Amino acid sequence: MTASTPPGKSLRPRLRADAARNRAQVLAAARTAFRELGTAAPLDEIARRAGVNIATLYRRFPDRDALIAQVVLDGFAVVLDAARTAAQTARTDPLGALETFMLSLVDNRETLVLPLIGGPVTNDPQARDLQRQIAAALEEVLSAARARGAVRPDVAAVDLITTAALVCRPLPHLPQQQAATLVTRHVGIFLDGLRPNTTRQLPTAPTHEEVAVHLAPGPPEEAPPSAASDR
Amino acid sequence: MTASTPPGKSLRPRLRADAARNRAQVLAAARTAFRELGTAAPLDEIARRAGVNIATLYRRFPDRDALIAQVVLDGFAVVLDAARTAAQTARTDPLGALETFMLSLVDNRETLVLPLIGGPVTNDPQARDLQRQIAAALEEVLSAARARGAVRPDVAAVDLITTAALVCRPLPHLPQQQAATLVTRHVGIFLDGLRPNTTRQLPTAPTHEEVAVHLAPGPPEEAPPSAASDR
């Protein structure tokens, strides 16, 4: 490995350690900047926060859309991991699995820059795909729970996603520990509300697709994302 | 009533119609500006949005803290009204009363610029007093509910306040109707989770005072909050 690795398409498979570190730093800085300043956060501000040259940022991410897409994809990947873990443990303890799912997202919320918690929407078709997989894993949890008679029949994956979104946004001004306790209590009460023999009639849930279309507007042929364009 | 009403402390009791209108416009503009830009929102920007002269703004509110305090107090007053309505109807249908309480706050969230939903903290002792009254009214609802065996013993007013805060922040990117449906479902499930015969053990709740101290730090001599020190 030499110092003269050429930039371009073939760079990524053999990223040197410092290049990988730069890339991670840029993504971490972008996560913070998008959360604080929105998608319009200046790229040179992101480079500054990452401690890298703006040219280095462009070498890793050809344009703003590519950077946004990667940050959002990373967030969805964290959620998918948590949802799959829940699906694995749901057979023995479905409500426990959902509790672990929710609270692990709260614990990792700094890495979650997702549309429903205030992050940007991306056109990247991979985002839509990850969302489908997340919904599928959560439906698997609910199926296992229904098979045990452990949850109300009218709960859907979209309710779990909504709840995760609500609890992942920090309660402002409170000390972290106190906010965490209150959110844990909220999640506990919500989970008890999932049990059968309900009293509240819920309005009809939107389908996963109805929600997702607003959070990842679809494949390139529908709406060409600039992220896919070479520069 | 003349056109030459002098400015100052004695103005308020005899506000003319246009002065009252100006005041309401300034408060409405401040609500929006504080939500969008934080407590540091420039006062001349607030005056501009309100369509009034900056001098007019200063005639109604001598400084930034006075304006912040009034916006926050107005928000707490809306919550207190809703909590008192809930307390009145709790005897016959406590969970229904809580549902109405939560959803009426969601409906009115544009008027709620409160610490827990991202609004500023104020030193105004009236804020602390309103918070106490809100907590008392909600405890009254819970007492009525407990007397009917309608709620779990371990739920506290602070849980209802946390939940109201979580659901009052809009779910981003979703169409309003869809977000409203999802929040209504969330509230319904949460309320069913309040029923007795629970399965989840909740961590010990912070007391109302432990939470409130971060949201209205009391008179300036106790603990000047940094949130109010940005002018």
Describe the structure.
- The structure is a homodimer of 231-residue chains.
- Chain A is mainly α.
- Chain A folds into 2 domains: 17-62, Arc Repressor Mutant, subunit A (Orthogonal Bundle), CATH 1.10.10; 68-220, Orthogonal Bundle (Tetracycline Repressor, domain 2), CATH 1.10.357.
- Helix content of chain A is 58%, strand content 0%.
- Chain A is built from 9 helices and no strands.
- In chain A, helix 5 (94-107) packs antiparallel against helix 6 (125-147) and helix 5 (94-107) runs antiparallel to helix 8.
- Mean pLDDT of chain A is 87; it is low at 220-231.
- At the A-B interface, helix 7 and helix 8 of A face helix 7, helix 8 and helix 9 of B.
- Chains A, B: InterPro entries: Homeodomain-like_sf (IPR009057), HTH-type_TetR-like_transc_reg (IPR050109), HTH_TetR (IPR001647), Tet_transcr_reg_TetR-rel_C_sf (IPR036271), TetR_SbtR-like_C (IPR049445).
- Chains A, B: This is AcrR family transcriptional regulator.
- Chains A, B: Residues 20-79 form the HTH tetR-type domain.
- Chains A, B: Residues 42-61 bind DNA.
- Chains A, B: Keywords: DNA-binding, Transcription, Transcription regulation.
Assembly type: homodimer
Average pLDDT confidence of chain A is 87
Pattern of helices and strands of chain A: HHHHHHHHH
Number of strands of chain A: 0
General form of chain A: elongated
How many structural domains in the coordinates of chain A? 2
CATH topology (level 3) name of the largest domain in chain A: Tetracycline Repressor, domain 2
CATH architectural name of the largest domain in chain A: Orthogonal Bundle
Domain HTH tetR-type (chains A, B): 20-79
Keywords (chains A, B): DNA-binding, Transcription, Transcription regulation
DNA-binding region (chains A, B): 42-61
Protein name (chains A, B): AcrR family transcriptional regulator
